[in-house]
């Protein structure tokens, strides 16, 4: 059963959120428009949508890295006004200090929070053990494989015991086999403390395999198009749940909602007519990584810089 709290104050709530940026040419780009989304305490929420629809921007608003142009962002009922110690953020790229050992990288978070070096190092050793990296404490990040670096990133984030965990396509650079292993490890670690999770991904299979619910965003400016409850039992094994008949049915339902948004985004970036007929059909989950088309559209050339917000 999915054990999330639905009658409590949401861990995360976005109410009518709009986010605008100045473009290099002096225009205004709207990344998000009137977006409403909630995540309950202990709930694992995956967010999917076409390229450029504002998925990463949503994470920046929740984390306090950016302020919304309009609307409200709340954590446990309180407005987000700055960075919050209760939030952990795992990025798509590595966030390790390249000159520090694995042990010191994992201990860095607690040290920045005022924990003594002795206790921080002890906690780091424990988390490295949990993610299967005992014996690699003295290595530098460049001496590790991609999968091992992602385990370091998990340890770096979870050692701070976040109540809210934000993840921005954290496994997209891994090969398929390694990604499935790390996904299983993530679920096992998440079960220990059950933070509320917002997991951004371009991989629909990954979203369904991990999450309690999947939120579909429209083509930009992004807003919530549909929300799907993932009623698959827990605990799950990512490598096995994909063969479940219910998984396949959920995939087909969500792809039906997502398909037109992906098509529109691709048409915009390619300069094609979005109303033109296509031969698109529902791709099978076995080919989701490429057939869903999430990574096909390129970012528009006028993508605004992060320091040019409009309020």
TrEMBL record:
This is ABC transporter ATP-binding protein. GO terms for molecular function: ATP binding. SUPFAM superfamilies: P-loop containing nucleoside triphosphate hydrolases (SSF52540). CDD domains: ABC_NrtD_SsuB_transporters. Residues 12-244 form the ABC transporter domain. Residues 276-298 have a biased composition (Low complexity). Keywords: ATP-binding, Nucleotide-binding, Transport.
């Amino acid at each position: 059963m999915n054990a999330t709290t639905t009658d409590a104050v949401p861990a995360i709530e976005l109410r009518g959120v709009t986010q605008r940026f100045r473009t290099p040419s002096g225009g205004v780009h709207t990344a998000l428009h009137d977006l409403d989304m909630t995540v309950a305490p202990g709930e694992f929420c995956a967010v999917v949508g076409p390229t450029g629809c504002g998925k990463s921007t949503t994470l920046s608003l929740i984390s306090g890295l950016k302020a919304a142009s309009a609307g409200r962002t709340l954590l446990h009922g309180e407005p987000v006004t700055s960075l919050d110690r209760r939030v952990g953020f795992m990025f798509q790229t590595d966030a390790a200090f390249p000159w520090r050992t694995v042990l010191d990288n994992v201990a860095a978070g607690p040290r920045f929070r005022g924990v003594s070096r002795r206790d921080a190092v002890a906690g780091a050793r424990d988390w490295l053990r949990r993610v299967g990296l005992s014996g690699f404490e003295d290595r530098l990040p460049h001496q590790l494989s991609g999968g091992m670096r992602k385990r370091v990133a998990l340890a770096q984030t979870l050692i701070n015991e976040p109540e809210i965990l934000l993840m921005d396509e954290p496994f997209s650079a891994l090969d398929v086999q390694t990604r499935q292993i790390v996904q299983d490890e993530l679920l096992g670690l998440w079960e220990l403390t059950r933070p509320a999770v917002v997991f951004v991904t371009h991989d629909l299979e990954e979203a369904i395999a991990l999450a309690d619910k999947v939120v579909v965003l429209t083509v930009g400016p992004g807003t919530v198009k549909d929300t799907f409850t993932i009623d698959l039992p827990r605990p799950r094994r990512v490598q096995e749940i994909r063969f479940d008949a219910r998984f396949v049915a959920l995939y087909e339902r969500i792809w039906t909602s997502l398909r037109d948004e992906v098509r529109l985004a691709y048409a915009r970036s390619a300069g094609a007519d979005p109303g033109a007929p296509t031969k698109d059909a529902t791709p099978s989950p076995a080919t989701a990584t490429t057939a869903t088309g999430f990574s096909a559209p390129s970012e528009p050339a006028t993508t605004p810089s992060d320091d040019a917000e409009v309020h």
